[in-house]
Amino acid sequence: MVSNNIMGYKEQIDLSRLPEHVAIIMDGNGRWAKGKGKLRIFGHHNGVLSVRDVVEGAGELGVKYLTLYTFSAENWNRPSIEVTAIMELLVSTINKEIKKLMQNNVRLNAIGDLNMLPGKCHRELLGAIEKTSGNTGLVLTLALSYSSRRELAQAAKNIALKVQQGELNPEDVTEEVFAQNLYTHNLPDPELLIRTSGEFRISNYLLWQIAYAELYFTHKLWPDFRREDLYEAILDYQKRERRFGMTSEQVN
Ligand code: FPP
Hints:
The protein is α/β, with parallel strands linked by helices. It is about 45% helix and about 15% strand. It is built from 9 helices and 6 strands. The chain has helices at about 5-10, 30-35, 40-60, 80-105, 120-130, 150-165, 175-180, 225-240, 250, and strands at about 20-25, 65-70, 105-110, 140-145, 190-195, 215. A 6-stranded parallel β-sheet has the order 3-4-2-1-5-6, sandwiched between helices. It is globular and about 55 Å long. The model has no long low-confidence stretch (mean pLDDT about 95). Farnesyl diphosphate (FPP) binds near residues 29 and 51. Farnesyl diphosphate binds near residues 26, 27 and 75. It holds the Pfam family Prenyltransf. This is Isoprenyl transferase. Its cofactor is Mg(2+). Keywords: Magnesium, Metal-binding, Transferase.
């Protein structure tokens, strides 16, 4: 059902000033399920419906990059029954959604320590990435087994190795060179970071990349989040003045 409110948010968005890249920390699946007297995995299953709606809504609007914090490196420490269920959900979702991704011209991408994923999950993921690699619409990046600190440490290691092998001079290690050694080397920095569920934390997500991102927090739990919530966040983003360290007069 489309309410006036939904139409309202979308219509108010200035399409010439869309954030090119939106990153989301999808949080609150467990609490959502608990609130309904269900198991946590019920929340993750319903979280997939939010993913589907937000991916469609973002693509429809013209957002170019959407990056979803799907499974953190720290999440491996959850009870194994939940980890297994999330991995199975990932596989079944990829299989179920691949047709839709092709229809919607979405290119799937992933960042994180993907080698940690169970073999089947890893293979299905790489297969879907390959299958959608020619698509030219929204780039949907799933952060899986992702830790920003690990990503940064890995980048430092790569650079140190290049210096050691004489491929790079220490004085040539610029911000750009550093960024080129991150998982996100082929993505622009997010301009907008959304976190659901009323938590005001970054939780080891894209620490380098969000240096100038606008942060948007909502109390909605992820399974309740839909495209109109994304539109509301984008509207809020458009009302802000992004100064990048300059004065208000300078940016105006
Ligand atoms: C956070 O809620 C959610 C996760 C750790 C998993 C996210 C996974 C999905 C939305 C489903 C799979 C997604 C795709 C793209 C196939 P939480 O469990 O931390 O909730 P809580 O803070 O209330 O416990």
